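Suppose a classmate hands you a notebook page containing two proteins, each written out with its sequence and a corresponding row of structure tokens. How would you begin to make sense of it? This section walks through that situation. The first entry is reproduced here exactly as it would appear on such a page.
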Amino acid sequence: MRFADSAVWRSALPLCPLLLFLVVFFLYPVGRVLSLSLTPGSQASPFHELFATPVYRAALWRTFHVSVTVTLACLALGYPVAYMAATAPRPWSGLLLALAITPFWISILGRSFTWLVLLQRNGVVNQLLQALGVTREPVSLVYNAFGVYIGMIHILLPFMILSLYSVLRGIDGSLLRAAASLGANEWQTFRHVYLPLSLPGVAAGVVLLFIMGLGFFITPALLGGGRVTLVTMLIETNIHATLNWPMASALSVVLLGATLLVLIPSYGLLQLDRAFGAGPR
């Protein structure tokens, strides 16, 4: 018995540096944020002030609304691209996938600044709209919610395509041929066979993008011009401007809680490990 216990300890010994790293750089910071969020302020607790202040409530609602909208837009745009890449012959499939991940070569800050230049009143997009006769004068495409949506969709769309592609590529083509041999047309085959089999990829992409959308900061700050206030901006303001660390911690805890509420049930019910390629096939 003692020999078995010593063998277990020896096998677990290589994990000690990793566990120490997680404790120091993950568990302790998270615990510190949780303790700060429970620190009472001069008038009330941070959570009471958070949900009682209209500015904070509006920012919370706007953050969730933006994240959901961007996620659904990326799903609508990314599914056809992933479908084409997964069903195309090998050379064209690789080309489409390469074009989808090309934006990864540019940093998020660089892409955000690029959209800032393209969407400004004298930018390329407004010049093109006027040249085509769509508009007579420059329209406001940036420093508002529209610019935030465009920038976030452009940045998050490749993640949706990759999440869908990993599942769509693994769908057995013999099932589609069997449905066709039984008299199903292309739409019926897609609706009753292909689409249900692709739902793990849809779930993985939706959960991934929604969680990433909750924590976006650079793109909304640049393209929103301070007019589209999200929770992450309020966290930055409370840390650097007002030095209200308890309120910043409370806002962070709300985002963390929302992430866990989405991730944990989705991981268990929708088997996201298989969608990301980690589970048994």
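The notebook's second entry, a different protein, reads as follows.
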Amino acid sequence: MAWDNLQRELDAWAAAERTATFWWRDDDATKASPELDRLLQIRAACDVPLCVAAIPHRLEASLSDRLAAEKEVTVAQHGYAHDNHAPVSQKKTELIGTRPTPHILAELAVGFEKIRQLVHAIPVLVPPWNRIADHLVPLLPEIGLTGLSTFGPRHRAKPTAASKQVNTHIDPIAWRDGKTYVGDPAALTAATTHLAARRGG
């Protein structure tokens, strides 16, 4: 049923003479690993581009070496150290509003300097846990980060005149259930729902 619904939605895009687009982002990269190798093998087999969000403070040289020849892979910045600074009662976040703004921006700037040394780096920030304090967003272009990517519907395509936001909308991982695959129905329903919302404006 979920596959049929997705096919009907794609048919609706085709009937409107529009093309439904997808993109792939994978977070938390720090080094070369068997898991990264498998990810890159899947990417190659599917022949789709991939954006890897790497954690600057934990970067190892092996990541740069492994991705150097991957022409269809871009590298974005995944926060700074991926440390949680939220109180126990709140959802995890690194880029929280209660931390001093200059300190956060200084960390991100240092992190971006590390990321931009990698081959195929792009000036895009992917906040850990997909959360960032609202007041930080318009300040990101000041340190060279002109792109932002979180999760779910965005408020606007361009948070500022100098930046653009492109989010993900399908999370295939059941983080609270053993970090397993959520299953086809959940993943495909998320895809279909988002595509219908895009098509409808």
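A careful reader of the second entry would note: The helical segments are 2-15, 34-46, 61-67, 101-115, 184-199.
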